[in-house]
Amino acid sequence: MRLTNQVYGVSNDLVDTYIERNNVDEAFLSGLQKNKHIIIYGASKQGKTSLTNKHLRDTDFIKVNCSPTATTLDIYNSIVRQLNVEIIESTEITTTMGGEVKVGLKAKVRFPFFGGADAETEAAATGERETGKKYKTVDYNLALAQDLSELLKNVNFQKRVILENFHYLTEDVQKQLSIDLRIFEDYNILFIILGIWREKNRLSQFNGDLVDRVIEVPVEPWEKTDLIKIVEQGLPLLNVSFNNVVDYIIESCFDSVGVFQEICKESCYAAGYHDTQQDAREITIENVDTAIKKKLEDYSSRHTRCLESFIEQRARSSQDVPLYVPFYFVKVLFQEPIDIIIQGLKRKPLQEKIKEIHHRPDDVRPSDMGYFLKNLVSSQISKNISPPIFDFDNSTNSVKIIDSTFYFFIKNCDREDVIENLDIPDGLLNT
User: Fold this and answer.
1) Which residues pair with 215 in a beta bridge?
2) Are 394 and 206 in contact (CB under 8 A)?
3) I want to staple 287 with a disulfide (CB 3.0 to 4.6 A). Which of 7, 126, 175, 270 is the partner?
């Protein structure tokens, strides 16, 4: 007997209908075997976390969930805290490197020490032997990748470090970590980085030395055959068939496995199938339509709130009059056909279309668009839009949707109604 939400849906736990894809799972396993850093990227709810859950045990890794305020020091401290390492005392220090002030943490750490006669002698000399174990006390600067690497090697660390939600970090922190990854590689301290973006070589843009030193695993696209395999795998588990409706669901989900899984789950619920059925059952078009309506309601409430936060922009001073580029961007976006939205909105045409409807068209300069696009993700994170909806892809010079549920929302919603119900920024009310 299986519950429907164990077979279908989006979950932190691995659902029963996880399927392996040669171009994704084999690339990930190859990265593990070749002892390289692995970067897993793609839109939200496309299977990044599921990929690691499938192939790694809890004992194979330690995980750090990145946040917008996290620094490299915060991340490295988290790694140390999850190990059998005791920080006896610590002092915050500042250093100047290349004219830039950096904050570090000088720490005296105590950890189990494994070795031969030398270790025995050192432990005895320092009084660091307890209950048959030998300990070593050393000073480290935990803000430095080299110091942390030496510490991890001393404690015989052989796990992977997973950085979840890497995209939440500021660009400066991402850049520093991209530099530090090269140092960690020298010590065979290997990371798995999960991020929501769609362009190749994102980290190599920060550190060109990473080219050919990392394995990149894009979790997209999901092919139609992949999605069909999901319902085929679920059939014997629930005794529920999607044969007559699977094409219809695929057309509705825009290659988003998360949306596909959720519609399958909600279709079962709409039919009254909450667990394994004794007799064979069929999902109908009516069941799917009910599921689509339910998911549209779920996604609409979230995305509408996110859009309201996204377009909000306050003047920095009484003399400052913002251009409200986010507001006009959303208006242009909602006027575009779905195929253009899927391909991405090119920078130059986007600027021209914004100027066509802007209240101050001559003031919309390339530099203003550049600032808006460069800070596209960080501005969403600062407004608690999680996961971010939009990202600027430097490789294609276009704005891409990176929340896979947004395609479903913008395709199925009443666009005019959404735009009309958005709060117009205060500064535009009198223009």
Assistant:
1) 38
2) no
3) 270
